[in-house]
TrEMBL record, chain A:
<dbReference type="GO" id="GO:0016887">
    <property type="term" value="F:ATP hydrolysis activity"/>
</dbReference>
<dbReference type="Pfam" id="PF00005">
    <property type="entry name" value="ABC_tran"/>
</dbReference>
<protein>
    <submittedName>
        <fullName>Phospholipid/cholesterol/gamma-HCH transport system ATP-binding protein</fullName>
    </submittedName>
</protein>
<dbReference type="InterPro" id="IPR003593">
    <property type="entry name" value="AAA+_ATPase"/>
</dbReference>
<keyword id="KW-0547">Nucleotide-binding</keyword>
<keyword id="KW-0813">Transport</keyword>
<keyword id="KW-0067">ATP-binding</keyword>
<dbReference type="InterPro" id="IPR027417">
    <property type="entry name" value="P-loop_NTPase"/>
</dbReference>
<feature type="domain" description="ABC transporter">
    <location>
        <begin position="2"/>
        <end position="238"/>
    </location>
</feature>
Automatic annotation (TrEMBL), chain B:
<dbReference type="GO" id="GO:0005548">
    <property type="term" value="F:phospholipid transporter activity"/>
</dbReference>
<keyword id="KW-1133">Transmembrane helix</keyword>
<dbReference type="InterPro" id="IPR030802">
    <property type="entry name" value="Permease_MalE"/>
</dbReference>
<keyword id="KW-0812">Transmembrane</keyword>
<protein>
    <submittedName>
        <fullName>Phospholipid/cholesterol/gamma-HCH transport system permease protein</fullName>
    </submittedName>
</protein>
<feature type="transmembrane region" description="Helical">
    <location>
        <begin position="12"/>
        <end position="37"/>
    </location>
</feature>
<feature type="transmembrane region" description="Helical">
    <location>
        <begin position="198"/>
        <end position="218"/>
    </location>
</feature>
<keyword id="KW-0472">Membrane</keyword>
<dbReference type="GO" id="GO:0043190">
    <property type="term" value="C:ATP-binding cassette (ABC) transporter complex"/>
</dbReference>
Amino acid sequence: MIEVDNLHKSFGESHVLKGISSKFEKGKTNLIIGQSGSGKTVFLKCLLGLFSPDKGSISYDGKIYSELSASEQRNLRQEMGMVFQGSALFDSMTVQGNVMFPLGMFTKQSKSEMQDRVDFVLKRVNLVDAHNKFPSEISGGMQKRVAIARAIVMNPKYLFCDEPNSGLDPKTAILIDNLIHEITQEYDITTVINTHDMNSVMEIGEKIIFLKNGLKEWEGSNKEIFKTENEAVTDFVYSSELFKKVRQMYIEERN
Amino acid sequence: MKTLILKEIDELVYGSMGIIIFISFFIGGVVSIQTALNITNPLIPRNLIGFATRQSVILEFAPTFTSIIMAGKVGSYITSSIGTMRVTEQIDALEIMGVNSLNYLVFPKIIAMLFYPFVIAIAMYVGIFGGWTAGVFGGFSSSADFVEGLQLDFIPFHVTYSFIKSIVFALIIATIPSFHGYYMKGGALEVGKASTTAFVWTSVVIIIVNYILTQLLLG
Ligand SMILES: Nc1ncnc2c1ncn2[C@@H]1O[C@H](COP(=O)(O)OP(=O)(O)OP(=O)(O)O)[C@@H](O)[C@H]1O
Ligand SMILES: [Mg+2]
């Protein structure tokens, strides 16, 4: 479980996060939603320790990040997996090299053990014939899947995804969402996902945090989000014409 | 780590051999011709051509001139490769895995560049050979005169001085561009700008350090 308490972060004059508190539970997919520029990426990077918060604390299963020594922080980070907004694959390495990288770096496994593990995770993300291709030679959706494979290869306790399905077609996007959801339940991972995709919200939003202007505006599940009276949230949720129509039909049907 | 270092040696050192041999040969040739053309006084011995070529190539052209070229070739490669990793969040990805990214990216380059003096040694040979070729085949000097000039008043410390310079320049070429790449901000456009800035700073530092070292070691 990850607990965030009163998190503040500014860049110079701009106060991006203005005191966010929340809890993310194990084995659940936690979604951070909000408009572009609302601070989702900054929030996630604070959780990852890439940005140090100005105020507030973050604890991982009781361990407060800022109170750990540098080497303890490094050890904790080895338990984290991250899927970046732009995949961030190492472009000098093949798909297989990318996925194997953390294993070679931090485990003492033999070559064949590593190979088995790499084959296993790549199969898990439905990529079987791309082992020797370079990131520039595969499609965006495949890159995302390699990034997920790389993030889970070390069996992380915490998985973070920054817009894992942006820029993908709806079908692939759902595939990726379901994949993350399944992996989360299968391995009992604490997963935090940034998104502005309403499909993801409906499909896998077990817990949702809505950010607005650097504050937590609303919190709840995907069942609750469609019933809420909070104007900012309904504004966001029903910003798409499709959803507006769906809601209209739902209301008409009810009457 | 070992494979990384070997890869960098291949990329940074071995990969620069071609251009350095090319440049050294022709610069050596030009120095030899220029010296020959400037000897108008018949009292000056013809072996001065070999002597002057040796001195300029060993003292300045091989270590300093080559290093400025390397600041452009190797330096911009280092800045742009590390800078691209920064803007595409590959460095963040390393950090999250728990890798010390600065160490991982820069250390192998510094080690690889310790082989740089070998490149300079080759540049010296080729430069002098270029001078001999231009002198002899251009009809400016006889081979015997040129070789006599090469052996005239040879001071071994000059070679040591030159190698000391190369080691220092190697460290400059490995670190300044790495710094500019690692700490850059922005996008693809900024990667280009960072490469240019890195080249300017690397050259400026090489020139100043060259001056200081020459004053300290030979002055
Ligand atoms: N490194 C930084 N330095 C300065 N300001 C930053 C930095 N990173 C983000 N910001 C600012 O913080 C604010 C929130 O940015 P953030 O990237 O978190 O938005 P986001 O919610 O992830 O948006 P998107 O959905 O478009 O990815 C923006 O106004 C941005 O300008
Ligand atoms: Mg973002």
